Each structure stands twice: as structure tokens, then as C-alpha cells.
Amino acid sequence: MRKADVLRRKVEDVELRHGMSVDELLAAFDGAGGFTAKKVAEGARIVGQMVRDRQCTVFLSFPAALVATGIRGVIRTLVERKLVDVVVTTCGTVDHDLARAWGAYYHGAFEMDDAELLKIGVHRLGNVLVPRESYGPLLEKHVQPILRELWDEGKRSLSTRDLLWEFGRRVKDRASILHWAARNEIPIFVPAIFDGAFGSQLWQFWQDHRQFRVDEMADEQALADIVFPAKRTGALVIGGGVSKHHTIWWNQFRDGLDYAVYVTTAVEHDGSLSGARVREAVSWGKVRPKAKQLTIEGDASVILPLLIAPLIR
């Protein structure tokens, strides 16, 4: 290693000014050379490259908690503008998207008294408050009639993709992720569909309709039909869990992703998937060794809007 080879680019100060655009702020982050700011700038560049690559099939993977917040709007914009081709997420995403289409969530605080909240019928999700009547009972009120409608139409077996499209067609809220996924025929896959309130509603419906099925094999076939013919694939992966793993798992069958940007708050020293950096996925063949890739450590409620804002024109 030669000194001249590594000392090539000077650190520049971030100069803030009134009316600064997001693009200008990201350029300043890039010049700052410091810590997460530089990673956010680089991540926005990679996300932009994968979205603009017309031969790249773009996956979006995220857990449910963000959908309980206003960041739902950022995710919905990605689906509404057709900036992603495939969504892989968790059952809670369906819960929160439908609950907010039919009800309301409220501001709270992390330090609130949870025992008192229980007494007054309010759930706490971080610093978001979810009235009990805006969650379980509300979902039951709306989900069961839609399931009966599908049953009366002769539908007995549906993949999670097709089931969520059916719900999306019936949700008129233009702020809904499901609404735009159905309208634009962007598949949403939920590998753990029973791990949430919506899944419990499916189980409840099944009690009196024993021929009703969620066909998860059809989801896997649909994923195969997407992954195998893809010229290139890329993924924006928020957090971890089953949605992250299902995204990178399927991409190993084509020798890995060509683009990958992870955003996570988890540590990697405990061996968790949530904390695993992109480089670990390379060892499994889930991300290609020469992929354009990056792991950004930080809160997606702050970072995701910065990554996506430059794509909105």
C-alpha cells in the first residue's frame, strides 16, 4: 500500500444554506467523507442505478413497523410510481396498511406508561399509538366481508400475491400500499402470512370454510417465474427477518443480486440475519461478488426518505 494511493480525496465541510435540495444535501454528504452520511449518499446512488437499469428487476423488502408511521407514504410512492417490481414483506404490513386505510394511528412517546395504555385500550408501537378499535376489531369488521365475497365468487385457494391484490382492489384509499400494488399489478409476497392480525382473520374465516386455502406454493412459483428469467436483479432491503431472507434466498438461485442496499440498526456480532451485512450474503451466493452493494447502519425512518427522494421527479 502506498500513501499516495490512499490519500486521493480530501474531506470537505458540509455547507448548509437556505433552500438546499435533497440532491444537494446528498452531494454534500458524499463530500463530507464521514461515517453514515457518506453511506447514505452512496446508497442513494446505488438505488438510483438499480431503478434506472431497465434490465434490472427491483425487489423491495421491509418489515411492518414502518407502515405504522408516515414512512408508509414513501413505500407507497415506490409502488405507485412503479419504481420497484417486487415487494416482500411481513403480515404486519397488511395489518397496518389496511388498518390505516380504515382507521387512524396517533403520535405517542416511547416512555409512556404501557400498563395505563392497556387499561384505556391503546396499543403502543414505539412512539406510535394504535387504538384497539383501529386494529383487531376494525380489521375483523372489514376483512371478513371481503373474504366472504371472495368465497361467494368461487375462490377457494389464493396465493398471498393474489389475495392481497384482491384486497387492494377493494381498498379505495389512495394512500394504501395494497391499493397501488393491485392497481399496478406489483406483486406483494408475504411468506409468513399468518404472523399477524390479518393472518388471524384468515384462520378465523377458515373455521367455517374448511376448503379455503392460502396457496404458498403458488407464491414460490411466481417468485421463480420472476427470478429465473431476470437479466439482473437488485434489492433495497430494510431491516431483517423473513422478508429480508426470502428476498436474498430466492436471488441465490440466479447466483445472487447485482445490486444490494441494506438499511439496518442491528449489530452483526450476534450472528443475526437482521445484522448480517451484505458481504455475508456474498459468501452464500445471495449477492454477487462484483455487485454494487452497501450496508447503511441507521434508522430507516430517517434514511429511507433520503434514499428515495432523488428518484421523485
Description:
This protein has 313 residues and is of the alpha/beta class. It has a single domain (47-311), classed as Deoxyhypusine synthase (Deoxyhypusine Synthase), CATH 3.40.910. The chain is 47% helix and 16% strand. The chain contains 14 helices and eleven strands. Strands 7-2-1-9-10-11 form a six-stranded parallel sheet, sandwiched between helices. α8 (160-170) packs across α9. The model has no long low-confidence stretch (mean pLDDT 97).
- Placed side by side, the strands forming the largest sheet appear as 7-2-1-9-10-11
Shape: globular
Strand percentage, roughly?
15-25%
Overall domain count? 1
Describe the largest sheet: 6 strands, parallel
Structural class: alpha/beta
Straight-line distance between termini:
43 Å
What are the secondary-structure elements, in order, as H or E? HHHEHEHEHEEHEHHEHEHEHEHEH
Full CATH superfamily name: Deoxyhypusine synthase
Low-confidence stretches: none
The CATH topology: Deoxyhypusine Synthase
**Strand count:** 11
The helicity comes to 40-55%
Note the topology:
Blueprint: H1 3-6, H2 22-32, H3 35-52, E1 56-61, H4 72-80, E2 86-88, H5 91-102, E3 106-107, H6 114-120, E4 122-125, E5 128-131, H7 136-152, E6 157-158, H8 160-170, H9 177-184, E7 188-189, H10 197-208, E8 213-214, H11 216-227, E9 232-238, H12 241-251, E10 257-264, H13 278-283, E11 287-297, H14 300-308
Parallel strand pairs: 1-2, 1-9, 2-7, 6-8, 9-10, 10-11
Antiparallel strand pairs: 3-5, 4-5
